[in-house]
Design a protein that fits this description.
- This protein is α+β, with helices and mostly antiparallel strands.
- The chain is 54% helix and 15% strand.
- The strands form 2 sheets. The chain has a 4-stranded antiparallel sheet, sandwiched between helices.
- The radius of gyration is 21 Å and the shape is globular.
- The two termini are 15 Å apart.
Length: 312
């Protein structure tokens, strides 16, 4: 992967000049900023991406302009790399309508919107085309489909161990978690990177830091993973997180494709009142999803190396 950094600062200055003009005048000249293989990213694309990201994560507006640009740019580059890879496997980016509707409902729920009418009104205010949302959801669906196709055979679930853990107690502990997955830059040590991220967390908060540093797709949501059953975590992560207090973060945890920092947002214990077999399936599905997410990060890191990125 290659970016011509000698003109990068000029691009940032140019971009933000037109960005603020756009906000006041509602019209700019569309310029090509980056080329990822044969895919291009324009100034309008970056503006739209920033508007989209502020839609799904309101914390973005709290950051400095240069950070916002970086996040918007990196988000689009990541999406373009996925599009390039998906094009090798799917002639048309079409998905099962029933499954799409399910994902779309979850998207509305995440934004606290009742229906697509409320979404359209919100998009109109941001001057975003509804097709942008549809395309992003389709890319997400197809990317997940590709990862499942490639790696489902490698998923390892030990239901006997899950059963044993459940039967140890009549309650299950759940954690509300957020994550930052990061890689090391050249000549950067783990200690240096962790100190940098930790300093950012202390000054800007975990959610904003996830937007800046996390390489996971959860970064758009501020790293939020939601409620996770502790029995669905692998032993190494379970050991690292079991004594972490609410509001605190873990030390970096080595995972395939990088390093993981987890924050415990909240905890709860629930009585096991449902069928044990049902609980086993829930934990098995959570475990499988975590493994697939790790494979997705590994796969993305692999294909990213073969992509050439040029700045104009």
């Amino acid at each position: 992967m290659k970016i011509y950094t000698d003109i990068f600062m000029k691009i940032i200055i140019f971009f933000f000049t037109i960005f603020f003009l756009f906000k006041s005048a509602n019209a700019i000249e569309n310029k090509i900023l980056f080329k990822i293989n044969n895919e291009i990213i324009t100034s309008i694309d970056v503006i739209n991406e920033i508007e989209y990201l502020t839609l799904v994560n309101k914390n973005l507006n709290q950051l400095e302009d240069d950070k916002i640009f970086e996040i918007g740019k990196n988000s689009l580059i990541r999406e373009k790399i996925k599009i390039i890879e998906l094009s090798k496997y799917f002639k048309k980016f079409e998905v099962n309508k029933k499954y799409y509707n399910s994902i779309f409902k979850n998207f509305l729920k995440r934004l606290n919107l009742k229906d697509d009418i409320e979404l359209k009104n919100l998009l109109n205010k941001k001057k975003l085309n509804p097709e942008l949302i549809e395309n992003k959801l389709k890319i997400e669906i197809l990317w997940n489909q590709l990862i499942v196709t490639k790696y489902s055979k490698d998923i390892k679930i030990n239901r006997d161990n899950i059963r044993k853990e459940i039967l140890k107690s009549n309650t299950q502990k759940e954690l509300l978690l957020s994550e930052i997955i990061f890689k090391l830059d050249k000549k950067e040590t783990l200690d240096e990177k962790y100190k940098k991220i930790k300093k950012e967390i202390n000054s800007k908060g975990f959610s904003n830091t996830a937007l800046i540093y996390s390489k996971s797709d959860t970064s758009k949501k501020g790293g939020k993973l939601g409620w996770i059953k502790i029995n669905s975590l692998n032993q190494k992560i379970k050991e690292k997180i079991k004594n972490i207090e609410v509001g605190k973060i873990t030390e970096p945890i080595t995972i395939p494709g990088g390093f993981l920092i987890l924050k415990v947002e909240d905890t709860k214990k629930l009585k096991i009142v449902d069928d044990i077999e049902k609980q086993i399936e829930i934990i098995a599905n959570e475990t499988a999803n975590k493994q697939l997410n790790q494979y997705a990060n590994i796969y993305f890191n692999k294909i990213e190396k073969d992509v050439e990125i040029n700045a104009f």
